[in-house]
Amino acid sequence: MASHLGCSPARPIGLCLALLLAPGCSQQPTDHADEEVPRPPEFEPVDPSAYTAKVKDLLVGQAPTDEELQQVRAHPAALRGLIDRWMAQPQFRDKMLDFFKQAFQQTQTTISDYDEQLGLPTAPWNAQDKIAFVRSAEESFARTAWQLIEEGRPFHEVLTTERFMLNPPLMSAMAYMDAVPMSDQGQIVNSQLWIPQAFPNFRFIRQTKEGPIPLEQTLNPAHPNFMKWYDPRPYMGPNATCQQDPFEVRQPVRALSALASFLYGGRQGCGSTVSQWTEQDWQAWRMVTVRRPRSGEQRTLFYDLPKLRTATELVVSTPRVGFFSTPAFFANWPTNPSNLARVTINQTMIVALGRSFDDSNITVQVTESTKPDDQHVDPGSTCYGCHRTMDPMRDFFRQTYTISYHLQYAPAERQKVGVFELDGVKVSGQGVHDLARAMAAHPRFATAWTQKLCRYANSSSCVEDDPEFLRVAAVFAQSGFSFKALVRELFSSPLVTLAAETKTAQEMGVTVGISRREHLCAALSYRLGVDDACALRGTLPRLETPQRRTARNLALAIPGAAYSRGAEAPLLPRDPNLFFVSATENLCGQLASQVVDAGATSRYTSAKAAEAISDFVRTLMALPDSDPRAALMKDILTEHHRASLAAKESPTDALRSTFVLACASPLAVSSGL
Amino acid sequence: MNATRRHMIQSGLFGAGLIGLRSLATGLPISFLLRPSTALAEETACADWQRAQYLILSTSDAGDPVNSNVPGTYEFPDIVHPQDPQMVPVPIALGDKVYMAASPWNSLPGWALARTCFFHHATLTNNHPNLPKVLKAMGATARQEMLPSIFAKALRPCLQTVQTEPISVGAGEVLTYEGRGLPNLNPTGLRDVLTKPTGPLSRLQQLRDQSLDRMHALLKERGTSAQRAYLDRLARSRAEARAISDQLLDNLAAITNDQAEGQIIAAATLIKMNVAPVVAIRIPFGGDNHADPDLARETAETVSGVQRIGLLLEKLREYQLQDQVTFVMLNVFGRTLKKLGTAGRDHWASHHCSILIGKHIRPGVVGGLEPQIGDYYALPIDSKTGRGTPDGDIPFAETLSAVAKTIGAALGVPQAVLDQQIAKGKVVHAALA
User: Fold this and answer.
1) Are B142 and A644 in contact (CB < 8 Å)?
2) Who among A574, A580, A646 is closest to B2 (CB)?
3) How far apart are CA B334 and CA B63, in angstroms?
4) Which H or E run includes B100?
5) Is the dihedral of CA B157, B159, B162, B164 positive or negative?
6) How do residues B48-77 score in pLDDT, each as one tens digit?
7) Does the beta-carbon distance from A650 to B200 stay under 8 Å?
8) Chain A contact present for B350, CB below 8 A
C-alpha cells in the first residue's frame, strides 16, 4: 500500500503513513532546513593497506600478511579471492555468529526475560544453568543461520526455517512451554495439559535419602519410581517443608513446573541444587526440526533426557518458524494486553526487511486523545493511519501466539486473518508461517540484508539508491541469496573499501572510526591468542575472577553495536571519547600482564624484546613489513622501549608499556586508518 | 645518565617544551594542550557564570507512572491512586502553598522540597521508542539536537567541563550529540575505566603519550582528510582523559552496582570531577505497568524512586554541589490516570509530570489537569503565573517545549539561546527562583 501512495524505498513506511494517511498529523519542522549544510570534503581514495586491513579485521579479526597486501597492491581485484580465503577460516564463522546474534535481535537478554514465556520463575535455577541458558538461547538462531549457510541454503530461509540449531536444554524448555500453555489472560489452559492426561500418575518427587535412582525408572510410567528424581544435594536450610525427603508435588500444574525447574537445578521455594544437564548437553548442538505431531503421535516429553540427547526432531504443537519465533527474540520483545504483538511485528519487520512502523527519524505529535487501550487508538486520531496497516500484520502473530508467546487456543484469535502489506506487496494469511513466506518473497529482503552488512562494516548506513549498493544487492539476489556471495561482493566493493567514490561516500561521508567493541575484542583475542580477551562470554561463577570482571567492565565501556525498539538502524557508535581512550588503555594494560613475561608459555618475553616489538607492529597494529608505515612505527615503539629502560623500569615493565603503546595506538583501536 | 635520558625525551621534539609541535601533530589547539580543561571554554563566552548549573537528568523510555501520584492529581476523585498505606495522600508544602500528594514525596528533605517544582505537561507521544523525540521536544529543536546536548553546549563555557557531550550512566543508549549516538556507560564500568593503573604502566604514561603524539603525526602526514579528522578526534579524547583529576577518583570506588544507587554516585562524581555538564541516569518509578495488580509495582517503585532522588540530593550536598546541580526527571510519556479496565495503567501522551529540583527552581506546581473524553489532559499554562488554565498562553501542544525551555532557563541557558534552539513554547517564569 505504501508504494501506491508515493513512498520511495528510501522513505520509511511510518513516515508515509503518518504523512499520507493521517490528515490530522502535525508534522513538526524537524530541522532548520534553510541553514547551510557544510559541503563534504573532496573524495580521497583510501590506500590498499588501509582497506585490506579493515576488511580482514572485519571478517576474521586478523591482520593482513605481507603477501596479502602485496597481492592487493598489485591487483586490487585480488581482494575478492582473499575474501573467499578468509571466509574459509574458523574466525569468520565466529565473527558472523556475533553479527547474526545482533542482526536477528537475539541478544541483550537476561535470564528473567525468559520467565514469562517459560511460565515459571528462573530465579531458583542453578547459577550455571542461568548463564548457559541465556547464552544458548542467544546463540541458537545465529548458529541456525550459519548452518543454513554451510548447507548452501538460500539465506532467506532464515525467515522460513523450521529447523533450528538447538541443544537438549533448549529443546526441553521449548517442549515445556508447549506442554503448559498460557492464555492471553495469563491462565494455564488446563484442557491442553496433555502430560497429566497421558500419565494420570504424573507427579514430581525429589529425594536424596534413598540414593540414586536409575533414570530409566524415573521416566517409566509403569515403574513405582516414576517421576521420582534423585537430588544429590539435600536441602540444608531452615524451611521445614523444603527439608521433607522425599519432597512430593502432586498437583499436576505445580508438578510440571517443579520438574521443569528441577531440570535446571531449581528447587522452587527451596533454593538451588545440581542441574540435570551436563556441560556436554549445553554443547550438544544439532539441527532440530520443530514440527507438529502427526495424528496419534505423542509430543516430545520435556523431561525425557535420554531422548532429548539424541533427538533431531522436536514434536510440539507450538509452531516455531524463522528468527522471529525463537525464545531469545520473544525475550527481547515481550508484548502485553495493550500492545498485542505490535512490538513483535514491528521488530520482525525491522530485522527481516529493514522497515519500521515507527522510525525514530519521524516526528509526529499526538495532539489528541488516543483511546486507551481496548482498541489502543481511536479512528481519526493521528496514530490511526499506522495502526490501519500495522494491526492486520500483527494478527499473524495473534493467530498463532498468546501474549506470553504460548500457542493460541482462543477460537476468536485463531480465526484471525493477517494482512501483510508493504511497498505494493499485499498478502493475506493465517499464522506465522504465512507471514514468513510473505516476507521471504518480498523484494526488500536483498536490500535489507545488504544494508545490515554495510552498517556492520562501516558503522554507517549505505545510501539505498546508490548504484553500487543496488548492484551488490542485485548480485545477492541473483546468487540465489547466497550469503557468502553477498559478503564477497560487499566487502570488495568501494562501499566498504572506499577505494573509489560512491554515492554513499558522497552523501554519508568517508567513515573512519573506532573499532567497535565486538571487533576490537575479537581482534585482541585472535591476534594475541588469548581466549575471550574481553571476558564477555559468561562463565561459571566459580571461574569468575576480579580480573575477568574488570576486563568485562572495561570492554563494556567500549562502544559496541546495539539495537533498540522501533529503530531501523542499530546504534553503531564510531566516534572516540575520553572513556573509549581510557577503557582501551586499561584493557591493554590488563592484557600486557597476560602476554608479556607471563610464564613459560608467554607469547612475548622481555628477553626477546626486538622480536616482540616487530610482532606488535605486524599483529597488533596490522602493518605488514611492506607497508611504509611499519618501519616508522617500529622505530617509535623501539624508542619507547629504550626510554622506559633508561627510566630504570624493569625489562618486563618496559616491554609491557611498549605493548600497551602498540595495543592502544590509533592503528590498533580504529577501523579505516 | 638514566635521568638525563628521561629528561631528554620529555623535553624533546614532542616533549612538553615544544607545545607547538605537539599541536601540529595532534591537531589540537595550543590552548587546549596547555590547559585542556579550560581551553574550549575560551572559544565561546559564558553568558552568566553565577547562574550556570549542571544537569542530572533521569529519563526512561518505560513511561513510568510518575505522573499518577504527584501534587495536582489529588483534586479529582476519579483519578486512581494505589491503596497501599505507603501511598496514602498527605499534605505537602511547596513554597507558600500546600498540596496533596502520595506520602513518599513528603520524605524528600525539607531543603529539597523548598526548591521542587512539579511541572504538568504533555509529551505528545505514547510510544516507547519515542524517548529520543521527546528529548528533542517532539521536533521543536534546531537541527534535531537533543535538549541535553543543547544545554550542555550552552553551559560548557561557564562550567569548563572536560567534555561537552552529555554522559549516560544508566539511562541507556538514548542520547545523541549533533546526530551522533552516545554510548551508555555502566557505573561499575565507569569506575574501572577511570581508575588509573598504578605502578610502572602509570609511571610510563607520559612517555607513551609522547610516542602516541609521534604516531599521530606520522599517520596524519600520510592520511586522507577523513583519517586526519578522525585522528584529531582521537587525540582530543586522549587529552580529555588526561585532564581528569585524580583527586576524586576514590569516590568511584564506592560504586558497587549498576542500579540506580550506582548511577547516582557515578553522576554526582562525574559532576564533581567536572567531566560533563549533563549526566543522564534512570531512576525506576513503576515501569511499563500495564499489568500491575493493585498497582503494587507502582507503589514499591514510587517509594524507592523518591528515596533515590533523596539519596542523590544528599550525595550532592555531601559534595557541596547542591547549589550547582539541577535534577530533572523527564520520561517518554505519562500513564493513564483513570482506571480503565486494565490491571495497571496504559501509555498516555496527553499528560506527564516532570520533576524539577534545583537552586533556581521555585517550589510549587506548574500547569494542571482537565478531564476530557477518555482521561485527563495537561492544561494549557499561563506563562506568568504557572497556573494550568484553558486559556493559558502556552497551548497544550507546546507544554513540552515550555518545560524544556523552563529547564534551560533554570540551568542558566540564555533566553536567546533557548528561543533559537527550541522553536516553540515559553519559559514559565513562575517556576523559576
Assistant:
1) no
2) A646
3) 6
4) strand B97-102
5) negative
6) 888 999 999 999 999 999 999 999 999 999
7) yes
8) yes
Q: Chain B 122-141, CB below 8 Å of chain A: which residues?
A: 124-130, 132-133, 136, 138-140
As a whole number of angstroms, the distance between CA B192 and CA B59 comes to: 24
For residue A490, how far is the Cα from the chain centroid? 21
Touching A: B residues 364-393, CB under 8 Å: 372-375, 377
* Whole-number Å distance between alpha carbons of B232 and B240: 12
Q: Are residues B191 and B248 in contact, defined by beta-carbon separation less than 8 angstroms?
A: no
Instruction: Read off the C-alpha cell for B148.
Output: 541535553
* Terminal Cα distance for chain A, rounded: 44
A576 and B234 within 8 Å at the Cβ level: the answer is: yes
Q: Chain B: nearest CA to A296, how far in angstroms?
A: 39
State the pTM of this model: 0.82
Query: Per residue in B324-359, pLDDT tens?
Result: 999 999 999 999 999 766 788 989 999 999 999 999
CA Rg, chain B, in Å?
A: 24
B189 to chain A: which residues are within 8 Å by CB? 553-554, 556-557, 583
Q: Among all chains, which residue has been given the C-alpha cell 482462543?
A: A410
A553 to chain B: which residues are within 8 Å by CB? 186, 188-189, 191-193
Q: What is the pLDDT of residues A387-428, one digit of tens each?
A: 777 889 999 999 999 999 999 999 999 999 999 998 889 999
* Residue for grid cell 529443546: A171
Residues in chain A with CB shorter than 8 Å from the CB of B240 are 577-578, 581
Question: Taking all residues of chain A, what is their mean pLDDT, rounded to a whole number?
Answer: 89
* Listed residue (A419, A367, A363, A441) closest to A159, CA to CA: A441
A372 and B241 within 8 Å at the Cβ level: the answer is no
B185 and A579 within 8 Å at the Cβ level: the answer is yes
**Helix or strand or coil: residue B359?**
coil
Q: Do residues A260 and A302 lie in contact, with contact meaning Cβ atoms separated by under 8 Å?
A: yes
What burial letters (b/e) apply to A46-65, b meaning 16+ CB within 10 Å?
A: bbbbbbbbbbbbbbbbbbbb
Q: Which residues contact A141 (CB under 8 A, 6 or more apart)?
A: A100, A101, A104, A106, A158, A164, A165, A323, A326, A328, A329
Bridge partner list, B364: B117
First to last CA, chain B: 64
CA A29 to chain centre: 36
Least confident range from A75-79, A362-366, B174-178: namely: A362-366
Distance CA(A613)–CA(A627), nearest Å, equals 16
Q: Which of residues 619-648 of A touch B (CB under 8 A)?
A: 628-629, 632-633, 636-637, 639-640, 643-644, 646-648
The number of C-beta contacts closer than 8 angstroms across A and B is 262
Residue B199's contacts (CB-CB under 8 Å, 6 or more residues apart) are: A653
Q: How many residues does chain A have?
A: 673
Residue A642, amino acid: R
Mutate to test the interface with A, among B61, B79, B149, B207 (most CBs of A within 10 A): B207
Q: Do A589 and B291 touch (CB under 8 A)?
A: no
Long-range contacts of A418-423 (CB under 8 A, 24+ apart): A418/A392, A418/A393, A418/A394, A419/A392, A419/A393, A419/A395, A420/A393, A420/A396, A421/A1, A421/A2, A421/A389, A421/A392, A421/A393, A422/A1, A422/A2, A422/A13, A422/A349, A422/A353, A422/A355, A423/A2, A423/A3, A423/A7, A423/A9, A423/A13
Place of cell 595506538: A665
User: For the CA atoms of B269, B271, B275, B278, what is the dihedral angle to 10 degrees?
Assistant: 130
Please determine, for the modelled complex, whether the ipTM score is greater than 0.90: no
Which residues from B are below 8 Å from A559, CB to CB? 183
The CA distance from A503 to the nearest CA of chain B, in Å, is: 16
Question: What is the Cα–Cα distance from A123 to A130, expressed in whole angstroms?
Answer: 8
Return d(Cα A119, Cα A188) in angstroms, integer. 9
